[in-house]
Amino acid sequence: MESIIHIMNFNHTSFSLNETAEFLEKNFSFINSSTVAIDLQEHSPYYGEYLNHFRNSYGSVHGYLTFLVCIFGITANVLNIIVLTRKSMVSPTNAILTGLAVADMLVMSSYLPFTVHNYIRQDLTEQEKFSYGWGIFTLCHAHFTVVNHTISSWLTVTVAVWRFMAVSFPARNTVLCSMARAKLAIFATYLTCAVFCIPVYLTFTVSKFLGNDGEVMYRVDFSEIAQRDDKLLERINFWLFSVLTKLVPCIALTVLSLSLVRVLYEANLRRQRLKNRVENDKTHDRTTRMLLAVLLLFLLTEFPAGLLALLSGILGSDFFNNVYLNFGETMDALALINSAINFIIYCTMSRQFRDTFKLLFFPKCVTSQGTIPSVEPSRTVATSLV
User: Given phi > 0 = left and psi -120 to 50 = alpha, else beta, which region is 214?
Assistant: First the structure.
């Protein structure tokens, strides 16, 4: 999620245009050593004037859109957790999907008050919008969402790796993809991502600034540590969190997704030569196709942000100021949609998920059609979410 850079940009919207330009030129000059001054004329590089118009137009609905997405996403992920932790649904893959649902729910739980305060509430004074308490919350929100979104990204990669091992090495499935290893992978991902984000914690702080009426207010800003050694920590943060945490998971998922598609294709060719189709093969297909849908959704919503960040590093401040920043809210919305929509994928592509959901929340409906078959916790990932 673009929380840090987006919040930094948002917290300076009370500046005049010249002050904003000076701030961006000063604080984002690490992107390219040959920084070009920000073009304040009517014409901007990379169609910046048109993209700025798009941002202003979209900004009027961003708060309401993300509010609805967060409400739906929090509810959907709570339902995911409830269903995936039922005894009949217990499996290593479903355990990882539960960890993914928790991380996504935490991201949206933090973004909800942020979007209400900054986009929906129109009655706030400048002092209320930039109070010290809100500055502290904004800083915590930025760190919290970065950590949990990073966890969500790498748990998605973990699911892909898990599924690839399950379909590539079916004979060793129960050993390679055991519940103990799934729990270890979840714990390691949460812990590693929290530690990995230490540079972010050190880079930003809450600082004072004077508002339009001369009163002291507070915003998220770069820390003194980040300004030392020719802004070394700023550069590290840009490449680690704007590029590596976006592009590396996307590249890994692309490779794994293509590998899973190849495995499915080869399996279908084998079945065409065999008249008898084993039920377990159908199970593998349904689970793999559903997880592929999850992976492809992640790529569609996350890859654009990683690509724009990489181009910002290559092309410099002109591209960053005229393109990247103008898509900040849009990229936030895409990330939130990715965090919210897995419930729909599970319901549309997983029969066992649908049946378990109906049994929990519409028991009479399920009872009239017959109860779902029970699945033993010891069964392998081949039976996950089918």
Answer: left
Contact 153/197 with Cβ under 8 angstroms?
no
* Cα–Cα distance measured from residue 96 to residue 103, given in angstroms and rounded to the nearest whole number: 11
Helix (H, G, I), strand (E, B) or coil at 122: coil
pLDDT in tens, 233-247: 888 887 777 777 788
First and final C-alpha spacing in the chain: 31
Per the structure block, which two tokens stand in for 146? 């970065």
Pull the structure tokens for residue 116.
């209400």
* 291-322 pLDDT per residue, tens: 888 888 888 888 888 888 888 878 888 898 89
How far, in Å, CA of 298 to CA of 153, rounded?
A: 8
- Which residues, in sequence order, are CB contacts of 308 under 8 Å at separation 6+? 323, 324, 327, 331
Q: Which residues have C-beta within 8 Å of that of residue 17, sequence separation ≥ 6?
A: 40
Report whether 238 contacts 324 (CB < 8 A).
Answer: no
Cα–Cα distance for residue pair 72/196, rounded to 1 Å? 30
Report the SS3 class of residue 208: strand
Under 8 Å between Cβ of 84 and 94: yes
